[in-house]
Specification:
Blueprint (H helix, E strand, L loop, with lengths): L4 H13 L4 E5 L21 E5 L19 E5 L7 H7 L6 E16 L5 E16 L5 E5 L10 E7 L5 E5 L4 E5 L2 E2 L17 E6 L4 H4 L2 H6 L6 E6 L11 H5 L19 E5 L1
Parallel strand pairs: 1-2, 2-3, 3-4, 4-5, 5-6, 5-7, 6-8, 7-9, 8-11, 11-12, 12-13
Antiparallel strand pairs: 9-10
Length: about 280
């Protein structure tokens, strides 16, 4: 596609002139070092955009870009730098769904949006995912993320998310969870500022044969006191590093669902395990 940049820009200008609303733009074949034309960011009529196998243009060159009607954005196997995705989200005031998948370079994602409702990140190498302010966000799914560099962990930081209902998949050993500037560690004493009371469904991936991973489970659970459905996937481990007795699990304390109403009984918690 790199040899057809002029034609591609012309096509994108034609699409902009015709007011296209939905667009899937994938560079085939590889490599993804072909830079995504900035002309794409002049199509202000887009409501749904999916891009794949490109190199993102410099964020500094997108100052005049705007997607006032964009509601769904997918970014797949796109080479990005810090701030690239943030810039598009900031310029998309109606964006509700953000899908990110497939990148080998660790980046820092910082989300500030009054419209986002669902964020899904999969098979992506990230140093950090910082949800600073997302008052309408209901779902945050992070799965199969790659180590950003040298076996380091991805930091997931949760800020202002008063409507967050579904969170997963937290993986001790791969993720560091931070809530309101407090890093959640094993044995930590929780207080109100460290609890996300809106979360009803929580998903964990745990290597139950690894002591350092398992001892984080009680700490995670205490941060989400109103969970009604708890999904736990038991991940494989090459070598056992510890055993756990009943006293260890009692540290979690009773886990009960939130009241459905003043009169109804407390809702049961569902545990789903897979080995």
């Amino acid at each position: 596609m790199g040899a057809y940049q002029a034609q591609l820009k012309r096509w994108l200008r034609l699409l902009a002139a015709r007011g296209v609303q939905e667009l899937v733009l994938v560079n085939r074949p590889w490599p993804r070092e072909v830079r995504l034309p900035k002309t794409l960011f002049t199509i202000s009529t887009l409501t749904r955009l999916y891009i794949g196998v490109w190199k993102f243009p410099d964020a500094a060159g997108l100052q005049d870009a705007s997607f006032p009607h964009l509601r769904e954005l997918g970014i797949f196997s796109v080479s990005v730098e810090d701030g690239d995705i943030d810039a598009v989200v900031t310029r998309s005031p109606a964006l509700e769904i953000l899908n990110i998948q497939g990148s080998m370079k660790g980046v820092r994602l910082r989300l500030v949006s009054n419209s986002l409702r669902c964020v899904q990140i999969r098979s992506f190498a990230m140093e950090s995912i910082d949800v600073v302010n997302a008052p309408r966000l209901e779902c945050l799914l992070v799965s199969e993320c790659l180590d950003p560099a040298g076996g380091s962990c991805t930091r997931i930081k949760i800020g202002h998310v008063p409507k967050l209902k579904l969170l997963g998949y937290l993986e001790p050993g791969k993720f560091v969870l931070e809530i309101q500037d407090t890093v959640i560690m094993a044995g930590i004493k929780t207080n109100a500022s460290m609890m996300v009371t809106s979360v009803k469904t929580l998903s964990l991936r745990v290597r139950f044969g690894v002591y350092d991973d398992v001892k984080m489970v009680p700490a995670f659970l205490k941060c989400f006191p109103n969970v009604e459905a708890l999904h736990i996937t038991s991940e494989k481990c090459d070598q056992l590093t510890g055993k756990f007795d009943l006293e260890f699990w009692e540290e979690v304390g009773p886990i009960r669902g939130a009241d459905l109403s003043n009169d109804d009984p407390v809702a049961p918690v569902k545990f789903i395990t897979r080995g």
